[in-house]
Write a structure and sequence with these properties.
CATH topology: MetI-like fold
Order of helices and strands: HEEHHHHHHHHHHHH
Strand content: under 5%
Distance between the termini: 48 Å
Number of strands: 2
Length: about 290
């Protein structure tokens, strides 16, 4: 009797997590999959249309633009943000007075509300009174309407995305670097290795788990970017900075095309899952 009870207890312990996962993740995902195959406006019952919404995605030029913008945001924020975070982590391992303050300041943008970050950058990039344009005027460079110019809107959002994400990358890499035994660097120094060689042959290989973790989480975050874009540019001008999530929100809560929005959401889920699995497979082999 006691042995049978011991076999049942673990299932009772994981039951709350299973219920939470089922109710808040599994069921909504299945419901979205169903809605993506229907014509649903929230004002009437879902009307089954099969793959019509997915066929529409193939011919929607605005969605294509959102897909390209999301890809550019991914490329422009993930690798640069991780590279800057690694450089900062390497610099902040030095034993100098006040380093804790610098670590906190660099990490601060990552914990501040995205709305607060966006509002701050709206002020900084204001075309008339913003400090960025004033500084450019001082050095003889004409200011720009950074967030409302189709040529600079997406680039500006990417720069802000790097600024908000590099602190988190720095903290993860810093924890990894501090976990590397100092004896490895001492042995390399006795063999005549320079600082660059120590970084290349010791630090980088041992930071592989952190790099893979950051790459996957940053990829997921970049594909889900919405708040910064919505507040800074609203996806404009002329859809120059719109993203997939921006299009999903617009189609669902502004145009009430829930079926079409669900199809975009399923596409985003599939793309994110595929890229994540590819990254994990590549990282696991190396």
């Amino acid at each position: 009797m006691q042995k049978g009870w011991n076999r049942i207890v673990p299932y009772f312990l994981i039951l709350p997590n299973v219920l939470i996962f089922t109710v808040f993740i599994l069921v909504p995902v299945i419901w979205v999959l169903y809605l993506s195959l229907t014509d649903y406006t929230m004002l009437q019952a879902p009307d089954w249309v099969g793959l019509k919404n997915y066929s529409r995605l193939l011919h929607d030029s605005i969605f294509h633009r959102a897909l390209i913008n999301t890809a550019w945001y991914w490329v422009g924020t993930v690798v640069p943000g991780m590279a800057i975070g690694m450089v900062l982590a390497s610099l902040l391992t030095m034993k100098l007075r006040g380093l804790a303050v610098f670590r906190a300041l660099i990490y601060l943008p990552g914990v501040i509300s995205s709305v607060a970050v966006a509002m701050t950058w709206l002020w900084l990039l204001d075309p008339l009174q913003g400090p960025v344009n004033r500084l450019l005027d001082v050095v003889g460079i004409g200011g720009q309407n950074w967030l409302q110019d189709p040529h600079t809107s997406l680039g500006s959002v990417i720069v802000i995305g790097i600024w908000t994400g590099m602190g988190y990358a720095m903290i993860v890499f810093l924890a990894g670097i501090q976990g590397i035994p100092e004896t490895l660097y001492e042995a390399a120094g006795l063999d005549g290795a320079s600082g660059i060689k120590k970084f290349w042959f010791i630090t980088l290989p041992l930071l592989k788990p952190m790099t893979l973790f950051l790459f996957i989480t940053a990829t997921i975050r970049s594909f889900q970017v919405f708040d910064l874009v919505y507040i800074l540019t609203g996806g404009g001008p002329a859809n120059s900075s719109t993203t997939i999530v921006t299009q999903i929100v617009g189609a669902s809560f502004q145009e009430y095309r829930m079926g079409y929005a669900s199809a975009m959401a399923v596409f985003l889920l599939a793309a994110t899952l595929a890229i994540t699995l590819i990254q994990y497979g590549i990282g696991s082999r190396n």
